[in-house]
Amino acid sequence: MRYQDKPANILAGRGLAALCALCISGWAAAQSAAPVPIAQQRTPGEQGRYPERSITDWLMRMHEASRLRSYIGTLVVSSNNGVMSSVRVWHACEAGQQIERVESLTGAPRSSIRRNDEVTTFLPESRVVRTEKSEPLGMFPALVDSNESSIPEFYTARRIGADRVAGFATEVVELAPKDTLRFGYRVWSEKKTGLVVKLQTMDGDGKVLEQAAFSELQLDAPVRPAKLGRMMTPPPGWRIEKAEAVKTDAAAEGWSIRSAVAGFKPVSCYRRPLAGATSAQATLQWIFSDGLAAVSLFLEPYDQQRHVQEGLFSSGATQTLTQRVQDWWLTAVGEVPPQTLKAFAQSLERRK
Question: What is the mean pLDDT of the chain?
Answer without folding.
Answer: 82
